[in-house]
Amino acid sequence: MEGPALNARKTGPKRRHESLLRTLAQPANTVPKLADKTHLEFNVITSEKLPEYARLDIFHRAVYPFMFLAQCFAVMPLTGIREPNPRRVRFTYKSLPMVVTLTFIAAALMMELAMLKHLLQIGINAKNFVGLVFFGCVLIACVVFIRLARRWPPLIRYWTRTELVFTRAPYEMPKRNLYRRVQLAGMMIIGLSLGEHAMYQVSAILSYKRRVNLCSAAANITAVTNFEDYISLNYDYVFQWLPYSPIIASLILLINGACTFVWNYMDLFIMMVSKGLAYRFEQITARIRKLEHEEVAESTFIEIREHYVKMCELLEYVDSSMSSLILLSCVNNLYFVCYQLLNVFNKLRWPINYVYFWYSLLYLIGRTAFVFLTAADINEESKRGLGVLRRVSSKSWCVEVERLIFQMTTQTVALSGKKFYFLTRRLLFGMAGTIVTYELVLLQFDEPNRRKGLLPLCA
Amino acid sequence: MKFLPAKLERKFRRLKKHSRSSLTRKLDVMHESARKKVIEENCDAYKNQKQSEYECRKRPTKFPGGTRETFLSEGSFHQAVGRVLLVAEFFAMMPVKGVTAKHPGDLSFSWRNVRTCFCLVFIASSLANFGLSLFKVLNNPISFNSVKPIIFRGSVLLVLIVALRLAQQWPTLMMYWHEVEQGLPQYPSQVGKGQMGHTIRMVMLVGMMLSFAEHLLSMISAIHYARYCNSTSDPIKNYFLRTNDEIFYVTSYSTALALWGKFQNVYSTFIWNYMDMFVMIISIGLAAKFRQLNNDLRNFKGMHMAPSYWSERRIQYRNICVLCDKMDDAISLITMVSFSNNLYFICVQLLRSLNTMPSVAHAVYFYFSLIFLIGRTLAVSLYSASVHDESRLTLRYLRCVPKDSWCPEVKRFSEEVINDEVALSGMKFFHLTRKLVLSVAGTIVTYELVLIQFHEDNDLWDCNQSYYS
């Protein structure tokens, strides 16, 4: 039965009844427009009707909400993301998303240059360098995303072409489908990052208020706290260039928020792509597991190996497009984790500062670990079929099984950072060890500064 | 198509003939013959014109060697690397005769050649300079920074000696390379043939230009320095006293010695840069051979090929691997010296960057040379790692072989590709792959973190310290 059962799922009697009702309720499908050649290449067999992309469990449909959200924040300017057919995704220089992105890049660049000028005046040290690194990373990430957006339309077409074979029998849909997995993880990261940004603002505002109250009480003048004063204090490097006005202040807040989103979106994107790839390898493993105690013809193994090779080729293609982004994200995470860990033993003034610091540190470490583990999942899933393959009975053994085992054991199937390192579990372990080593050395350097304690409040 | 019966046809034809008067028919014939004559004349004129043009072209033109033959290249490594080696020969490295010849059979090495004698003289002079440097450093307090001139001149001397030995083996190596190249599947177009040569030339050009710029900046910075540490009134004498202080530590100033010191410095800087360029160029050549094989395999990806095809490709792959081994044995010491050198100089320069700079000229020169050093190290690492990467790409095409064409030959081929580590190495201590770049970066950061502890801010811009890096 075609239609909703394209995603063949082990349905119980109740579910089957529902799906039957659904197919009957649908209007009769129209004849595919064979004259339109552009649709032909997506048909595995030309006599079949067009796949209904809106219903299929494909990667494009799973990630389009987040990619659309990213477009609103001026990242990855593509048109036609919300359409079900991946062929409609296009990248053009003369489009609204591109204009928004370029405006955002210009504004962030201005803030970075303002900060650089300010820091060159007061002297750069390891503590205030972090702002420059933050804006620098966001700018480089924007440029990397624009380059990725240029290559995205052919990539998503190739991806959908490759994964269509996994949307029909004999492949089964795993327990939670791709859409739900990506949604869950994405919502979690976005929710936690919103919490972090909100807590940053709360901590800054409360500290400012308390400081103004305490200092004016000590100097016996009336306390005046308002929005203008707060913004001028916090973003003083911008107001050395531009005069103060409420519009500029709100623009600054908006750009800051957008920069925070882009900073988080790097990891979110890598996580989404990893989940998409690991999902397909999981389906292959499930199919291999089903064959465990059966007598299998050689043609099945030929087919399985062919699909495995296709997935490996897809992974290599995605890796060559995304490698710069992965490298940038790793460097970014490494730097910020090291920087935050340096401040672990610092004394802070008020409890709200402690709450914000620990929340932000745990969020950072958690996000880094989560992205790494998700990416390492691809490598794990690709090898999970080995256990079953090695137990294939002598009657079913053939050259194709041998080839598949050889491939699974010898090739590293994983995303990489420009082929310098592969994202596997071993790497996460090694990176943790390196971070601990560097922290132990750097904390020694910071010892004299820390002994000074808190600086006087009202300078 | 005949739509009239034959009799009527004939009548019709006669009618047609009679429709024209004899005069017009005569005019027609005259016109026809005149036209033919004009065509013939024009044709002859045209032919003569073309002939004269061709001869014009064949005659020696304003540019000697401006014929098509000189611009065609076979795409062989020997031809691509010829001019690069010629430039090196002017700087007393690798004295091989016949590097710009068309065929590697014309290469020869002889002890009685002018080039070899020049090389030996330069080695002797470098040895003297190294001895003087060593003497000066050993007579002063030794620190991590003060051994810099010894390491610089020592590594240049070592590379010169190794290059002399390499020059002896070069003719045999190039002949073997030529044999391997002849056996590989040929490039489909002239563009493909010229690719490797183009990359090699670009690398050499960019590298030499940047190192020349760096040398100029160092001279400007040394002139500023000489004005700052002025021990005598003559600025030129100050300059030479600064840059060749190890010579004037033992002898008094003289112009001849100053010129000799300057000549030694310029040549040493070139050779110090050329080490890395040479490793890069050999890597580009080897990676291009693997790429040639991979491109041919890609054309037949997924198709049903006979076992003889796979057997042929496997043997060609094996030949390239053996070539890689031979080249590795020949240049291994140069690679190792180059990497250790880069590691040491990056550590030292990063440490020096913590100091305050006496002037803008210093700062500009310092940061330019640091960025050039790091860029050059990265370029060498990435180009040499490309040999290993290209050799592994073959597996991508082998895994697409369909079941019907699978044979023991393909199995043997894929097992060979996986198990054999084909890469350049540093005396077999480490293999040049991308993983190495990461571990070298980690090593540098670790050493820096420890060295920063022992850092003292005052003594690095000391007037008594040896300047030359």
TrEMBL record, chain A:
Membrane topology field: Multi-pass membrane protein
TM stretches of this protein: 93-116, 128-149, 182-200, 244-265, 354-376, 427-445
Keyword field contains Transmembrane helix: yes
Localisation per UniProt entry: Cell membrane
Predominant place of localization: membrane
Keywords attached to this entry: Cell membrane, Membrane, Receptor, Transducer, Transmembrane, Transmembrane helix
GO terms for MF: sweet taste receptor activity
Coiled coil, from the record: none
Functional description taken from the UniProt entry: Plays a role in the sugar gustatory response.
Name this protein carries in UniProt: Gustatory receptor
Gene behind the chain: Dper\GL16976
From TrEMBL, chain B:
Entry GO MF terms: ionotropic sweet taste receptor activity; sweet taste receptor activity
GO terms for cellular component: plasma membrane
Subcellular location: Cell membrane
Keyword Membrane found: yes
UniProt keyword terms in alphabetical order: Cell membrane, Membrane, Receptor, Transducer, Transmembrane, Transmembrane helix
Functional summary from the UniProt entry: Plays a role in the sugar gustatory response.
Name of the protein in question: Gustatory receptor
